[in-house]
Design a protein that fits this description.
Strand content: 5-15%
Structural class: mainly alpha
Radius of gyration: 38 Å
Distance between the termini: 101 Å
Helix content: 55-70%
Shape: elongated
Length: 998
């Protein structure tokens, strides 16, 4: 007897053998059922080798109890002790699967299925499983026979007799035999229907790929034809009844549970389409309507039940369509978008536990392999396997993926699939979530041979394999392109030139030959520079392919690399700073403007990193002005000073454009910015601040060069239009007014000459041809327009506005804001015009009618000939002009009484009008959405084309690039235009009501 407080030797031995509840285990071992073998040392050793010794022991006791009589109990226990194969198999299953333990408790004689250990028993196929299911004539007996077969598969699996691929193949073969048995039961129940039709069951998904899980939907497609001259319509109806009955036999829950759901949703038109189609109907659908993913799914198609000849004909008929799917427009983008959509649909709380669908999961490997099969399988029939691991091996053998990458991916895929099997085997439930409970994790870890600290080791191994998959699954597609041109290691199979071109075309490259030349120039050789490029390019190629202009992205990257390749920091920045490489790829392939700005000073690449270059955050106006004025102060002469100011402007324009592109495209670490209005405000504010700082620096340079420190007249620059509203786009001119005031004792004519000379020199210097983009100054909003003097004194403005001011000038002055020069003079100018733009008691009805007349005239006269008024962002229906004039009418009528309306910014004024209940929240939101979208389109056009435009581009690639910037994927340009028309049509209806009073 054990002394109180001391543990028994059995307790200690149980702990040592891996039991987590030794007290309960000790009680079970002391039970009458195990009395004959309790002292046998082989039992404890065998239990200790299982995934969960506690579970295995409990299952064994239940099984012995279920035998029913003493003779049966003795037979089981004697065999268990005497036959090591049975002991390992039976206890292995009991320690890994509570569900199969339940089955054995219900059917206690089924343990005998694990006794035989003949060679043919080690790797059964469809024929062997059919024999096992032959006695099943109804759904209940089919389930019992199915579980009996599953028991033997699981036993071979957990004992290591079969590896992952063999286990998955056996599960697929068992599914095939089960589908055949279920169809036979359905046909026996409806012999008349069976006589009318030929019905083929084509397996899809993992069953079709001969790589099934323990518990998974079995995906199928049904093909039906008339038999013996029967009417086709009646034959299809009969086949549909048989198919539906077969599905119910497998899927419905009985006293023995269910087998698995049979899922026919991969059929044409999915669940909305007919369950059974004829072969000709299938062909017509795939020729006309099928999407890319449907051809991808057909990679796994395999006839398994029913009329095998018809099923084989189905696969042969559709194969040519499958192997030409890679020629479809946006093929790679469609496949990658489907993968992204799968990840996006995972609940946030589950994404880190998703073994199958999450990042670095099984689906990443499967999608990557299938993508390569579709691209190269047309020319190479060795790649046409439905089994992932076989296809990966064939891809490596043919040089389509690197051998080392294939080995790593194979290893990680096997590990993740084994985890999936062990998770599902426990309860025989369909799940891909890694459990959180430590007992579950311990059982899984031990079942995979991790015996030291199973939980910690399992988490570590899972994390490692997931990281391998994340790193390799995209590289898998691009790395061989470099190997094909770099030609370093000998004896390694490589992509042929034709295969490389084929892959580049699939990625969307319009000139694959030029792309290969760029890759060769970047990656060839044994230098450290080439080695780093070979590391970077596989990922960069993927990002380029995700744009509308992959050719331009690769060409621009080569140009930047040629310019900076010898600098020590460039490649190090791209290699070591996670954001820099992806940011650069996005910027270089998004259009012409940002690359053009970068090519003029490639060192601005440093802004794309995470380090000390300031990043992509916009800089405040005060900091910009301080830098510009400092650069001007160091320069010799006016031209050099303004050149320095324009250089700062070029760099900051690049910063703003790059930030806008990265936020619009999104990156792996940073999602697309959802608030489009915030992006518009950021661009408008950054470009406006930059323009103001440039003008301040130019003014300082001109004054210093011509007059020293003090100009004979005070001088101020007043921003107007979109400049004053902080809403400048990349291609906007700077609308301004110039005002001066003679200093004491200075003759007015002398002051006027000096002021005009300053304006003329500023305009000249800002447009001098150079590597930097010009800044055009537009002063047409001045009194008397183009016919009036460029510069007026403050007194002249006061006299003009008092006597001659027109209502359109009051409207234009709503945007007036001081930006450069003499701050006191600028403030007094704003005080002068405030009564004009916010007239006391608001506008009279005559003035309102005049504004409406001017707007209607502008719509009819200024729209360019041939332009589509539904797509013109400035003057078109529901565009910028419509929204801005509506908001400005509110400001003119109510600004005197509503302080919130006294702003130069359109969105701010609209929000203030809504707050003052001058416009409903719904109408304000409609106007804001249209204004933001139109502004985004203008910015996109400038980014893509490198020159300003007020309507969508006519060139297909440029239009696609605008769509990509606005968040529309490949093939959705039509949706973009439809959305623009819909949003602006709604805005125009609001404008008609609020502005015209319709």
């Amino acid at each position: 007897m054990t002394a109180p407080g001391r543990r028994s030797s059995t307790f200690t031995r149980l702990l040592r053998h891996g039991f987590t509840d030794p007290s309960a285990a000790e009680r079970l071992l002391e039970s009458d059922q195990l009395a004959p073998i309790r002292a046998d040392p082989v039992l404890l050793d065998a239990l200790g080798r299982t995934a969960d010794p506690d579970l295995a022991l409990l299952g064994l006791v239940r099984l012995v109890e279920a035998q029913g009589d003493h003779t049966a109990e003795r037979e089981l226990l004697d065999t268990l002790v005497a036959a090591k194969p049975l002991r390992d198999r039976l206890l292995g299953v009991l320690g890994a699967s509570a569900a199969l333990a339940d089955h054995l408790a219900r059917h206690p004689g089924d343990w005998r299925e694990l006794v035989t250990y003949e060679p043919q028993d080690l790797h059964p196929g469809v024929a062997e499983f059919e024999r096992c299911l032959a006695e099943a004539h109804d759904p209940v007996s089919l389930r019992v026979a199915y579980r009996r077969c599953l028991l033997s598969i699981a036993a071979r699996d957990v004992c290591g007799t079969t590896d992952l691929a063999q286990t998955a193949a056996e599960l697929a073969d068992l599914a095939t035999a089960t589908l055949r048995a279920a169809l036979a039961i359905a046909c026996d129940a409806a012999p008349a229907d069976a006589a009318l039709c030929r019905l083929a069951v084509v397996a899809m998904g993992k069953c079709g790929g001969h790589e099934l899980n323990y518990v998974s939907d079995v995906d199928v497609i049904f093909v039906g034809e008339a038999a013996g001259g029967a009417d086709e319509g009646k034959a299809v109806q009969a086949a549909t009844r048989l198919a539906a009955h077969m599905m119910r036999i497998c899927s419905e829950t009985t006293v023995e549970g269910s087998i698995w759901p049979v899922d026919a949703n991969l059929r044409p038109e999915g669940r909305n389409g007919p369950l059974v189609r004829t072969l000709s109907s299938h062909l017509a659908y795939y020729q006309r309507w099928a999407k890319t993913w449907e051809f991808q799914a057909l990679l796994k198609a395999r006839p398994v039940a029913g009329d095998i000849e018809l099923g084989t004909e189905y696969v042969a008929t559709l194969a040519p369509l499958v192997w030409h799917a890679a020629e479809r427009e946006n093929f790679v983008a469609d496949v990658q978008k489907m993968r992204r959509r799968v990840v996006e649909n995972i609940p946030v709380a589950e994404v880190d536990r998703e073994l199958k669908l999450g990042p670095g999961g099984l689906r990443d490997v499967e999608f990557a392999v299938q993508l390569l099969q579709l691209v190269h399988g047309r020319a190479d029939s060795t790649l046409r396997s439905g089994t992932t691991l076989d296809a990966l091996k064939a891809l490596a053998a043919g040089g389509y993926v690197g051998r080392a990458d294939a080995v790593q991916l194979d290893d990680s895929y096997r590990f993740l699939r084994l985890m999936e099997h062990r998770i599902q085997l426990f309860r025989l439930r369909r799940t891909h979530l890694v459990p959180e409970d430590s007992a579950d994790l311990r059982r899984i870890g031990r079942s995979l041979g991790l015996r030291g600290d199973p939980v910690a080791e399992l988490k570590r191994e899972w994390k490692r394999h997931r990281a391998v998959v994340r790193r390799l699954h995209e590289k898998l597609f691009y790395r061989p392109l470099l190997d094909a041109v770099a030609q370093l290691a000998t004896g390694e199979a490589r992509l042929s030139a034709d295969a490389a071109r084929e892959r580049l075309v699939a990625l969307g490259y319009a000139d694959p030959a030029a792309a290969l030349r760029h890759l060769e120039a970047l990656a060839s050789g044994v230098s450290r520079k080439a080695a780093i490029q070979r590391t970077l390019l596989p990922v960069l190629l993927g990002w380029f392919a995700d744009s509308a202009e992959p050719d331009a992205g690769l060409l621009n990257f080569r140009k930047v690399s040629d310019a900076l390749g010898k600098t020590p920091w460039y490649l190090r920045l791209l290699r070591d700073e996670g954001a820099a490489a992806e940011n650069l790829a996005r910027v270089l392939s998004a259009g012409r403007l940002a690359p053009d700005l970068l090519m003029r000073a490639p060192e601005a690449v440093a802004l794309l990193g995470d380090g000390d270059g300031g990043g992509l955050e916009p800089r405040a106006r005060a900091h910009l002005e301080q830098e510009v004025l400092a650069a001007v102060g160091r320069a010799v002469g006016g031209e050099q000073a303004v050149t320095a100011a324009r250089g700062v402007r070029r760099r900051e324009l690049f910063r703003t454009a790059a930030a806008d592109i990265v936020a619009s495209y999104g990156t792996e670490e940073t999602p697309v910015v959802a608030d489009q209005g915030a992006l518009v405000d950021q661009v408008g504010g950054a470009v406006s601040d930059l323009t103001a700082a440039t003008l301040a620096g130019t003014l300082r340079a001109v004054v210093r060069d011509g007059w020293g420190d003090i100009l004979p007249t005070r001088f101020a620059v007043i921003a107007m239009g979109r400049f004053g509203g902080h809403e400048l786009g990349y291609g906007s001119d700077a609308d301004v007014l110039f005002v001066h005031e003679p200093r004491e004792g200075v003759d007015e004519h002398e002051a006027s000459r000096a002021a005009n000379a300053v304006v003329a020199e500023m305009r000249r210097l800002l447009q001098v041809p150079s590597a930097d983009p010009p800044l055009l100054i537009d002063a047409d909003l001045r009194p008397e327009g183009k016919t009036g003097p460029l510069v007026r004194s403050l007194k002249s403005y006061e006299a003009y506005y008092r006597r001659w001011s027109l209502v359109w000038e009051s409207q234009a002055l709503l945007r007036a804001e001081f930006v450069a020069g003499d701050e006191d003079l600028g403030r007094r100018f704003i005080e002068l015009v405030d009564p004009l733009r916010y007239p006391a008691e608001g506008l009279g009805e005559d003035a309102v009618r005049e504004i409406r007349r001017l707007k209607a005239r502008m719509e009819s006269e200024r729209m360019p000939r041939g332009a589509d008024p539904t797509l013109h962002t400035k003057l078109g229906r529901g565009g910028l002009s419509d929204v801005e004039w509506t908001v400005q009418l509110f400001q003119l009528r109510h600004g005197w009484d509503e302080p919130g309306l006294r702003t130069t910014r359109t969105r701010e004024a609209l929000a203030a009008a809504c707050a003052a209940e001058l416009v409903s929240g719904e109408d304000a939101a409609i106007l804001d959405e249209a204004w933001v979208l139109a502004t985004r389109v203008r910015n996109a056009v400038m980014l893509v084309r490198g020159r300003a435009g007020d309507t969508f581009p006519s060139d297909g690639r440029e239009l696609a690039a605008v769509g990509r910037y606005l968040g529309y994927g490949p093939g959705h340009v039509g949706d973009m235009l439809d959305d623009y028309r819909r949003i602006t049509r709604r805005a125009r209806a609001v404008v008609d009501e609020l502005f015209y009073g319709a």
